[in-house]
Write a structure and sequence with these properties.
This protein has five helices and four strands.
Length: 141
């Protein structure tokens, strides 16, 4: 009888225990190619990286004002191949990308005068759309 009572108390205690907290996200600033030219994405996956963080200079992507700023296919844009490769490789391995978009335009030629430098966070789904779809609209100005 005592054992049954103890077991019942233990089950009740375990049922009332809070659920474990979710694991912390692992993010990493890392290269898209190793010094020997190979891809680091298998290593990122082995390390349990959830999010790869990359940066790009908006001035390099859009040196001139695009005719259609919201259209990622506008001829004025020069998208870094490194970002496209990273989006494809990351999606294959279930890794998200976080893009730091630096040196965005400001002032009267920008679509949003106060846009400033922003972080564009992009989650890579299993099908990998181009990362440029996640670029903040204000950067396109």
């Amino acid at each position: 009888m005592v054992v049954a009572s103890l077991l019942a108390s233990l089950v009740a205690l375990l049922a009332a225990a809070p659920a474990p907290a979710p694991a912390a996200e692992k993010a990493l600033w890392g290269p898209t190619a190793l010094p020997d030219g190979s891809s680091p994405f298998a290593l990122y996956q082995q390390l349990g990286i959830d999010t790869l963080q990359l940066s790009m200079r908006w001035a390099d992507v859009a040196a001139t004002r695009p005719a259609a700023p919201a259209d990622p296919a506008d001829a004025a844009y020069r998208w870094p191949a490194e970002i496209d490769v990273a989006a494809i490789e990351a999606a294959r391995r279930g890794i998200r990308l976080s893009l730091l978009v630096a040196r965005t335009r400001r002032g009267p030629t920008a679509s949003a005068p106060s846009c400033g430098d922003r972080i564009a966070r992009r989650t890579s789904p299993t099908s990998s759309p181009p990362p440029r779809a996640a670029i903040p609209r204000c950067a396109a100005g």
